[in-house]
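Course exercise 7: structure representation. Students receive a sequence record and must write out the corresponding structure in token form. The form below is the worked example handed out in class, using PQQ-dependent sugar dehydrogenase (364 residues). Read each field label carefully; the graders check that inputs and outputs are placed in the correct fields and that the protein name is recorded exactly as given.

STUDENT ID: A-19
EXERCISE PROTEIN: PQQ-dependent sugar dehydrogenase
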Amino acid sequence: MIRLALLLLLLAGGAQAQPASFQVTDFATGLERPWGAAFLPDGRLLVTERPGRLRLVGREGQVSPPLAGVPEVEARGQGGLLDIALAPDFADTRELYLCHSAVVQGGALTRLVRARLAPDGTALEGATPILDATPAQEQGRNHFGCRIAFGRDGALFLSTGDRYVTKMRAQRLDDLAGKVLRLARNGAPLPDNPFASRTDARAEIFSYGHRNAQGLAFNPWTGSLWAAEFGARGGDEINLLRPGRNYGWPVVTHGVDYDGSRIGEGVSRPDMEDPIHVWVPSVSPSGIAFYTGAAFPAWRGSLFVAALNPPGLVRLTTEGDRVTGEERLPGIRTRIRQTVQGPDGLLYLLTDESRGRILRLAPG
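STUDENT ANSWER:
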């Protein structure tokens, strides 16, 4: 157990955060590349493993055998079994959603699946694909996106990556790669989506011009949707998503390509949305979560960002829909894929490791 006392530095914007302390423990072990997680109403935790397994973690951290009925995935490159989210009425319907990479005729793509958790918690029932982010792409197995979030109105939001090889897919409105989609629970586009009336665009699209958004979270105070998005070398972003807006990739970016060459036209353009927060150099942001609990009063209102490279956990202070400061929590030096708040008000971190763990942050 690591016990840390945090004396937080002066944050951007001139606000001094209250001192806080926390302790980090291994809550669960024996996982392989855990990627997504969702707490059940009874306090247990469903966790995906990228190689294609789904497990149920008990309230004391005990890990179940793999659940039956999980759809087949292609665990190659950055693909595999990725995010999981419970339906808003899960307590009544036991309905949940999975996102994963799949191989179809023509190549690989991001797929959304609807299923039910069996009453005994040992299997999924009726797992059915409800959306494929077409067209499929034969080349490459990177940038699948694959985060799921539900809005206050019950709409399902899904991020898709640009698939890496052909960057301009993110700008095409007849292509579901490099987008955030807004869907009904059967995978159909909602009729009030921004491009629903256009014949030259996919009706599922909510926003576009995204590289690889692996973080989606609704701000519980404002109702707005935030996304964390990987840049290339530098240029990682937090974006405030608005319907129909273009977020620029690969036309504008604060990053450069991996060979050091320039990407696009510059860092901004009047007809494209600027990020509300940028990292140069990168932190490789994955899952995000707003903190609303009582266990850490000084952190209430913060956005926690899972960081892969350099590894760790980033805390962003916020006011409304603005980022006001940034802190990297000391003592956490493991690649973190996702962060979730538990019903106990504690933070749970999924480590991106072959011997994967779930870390728990508690007051200390």
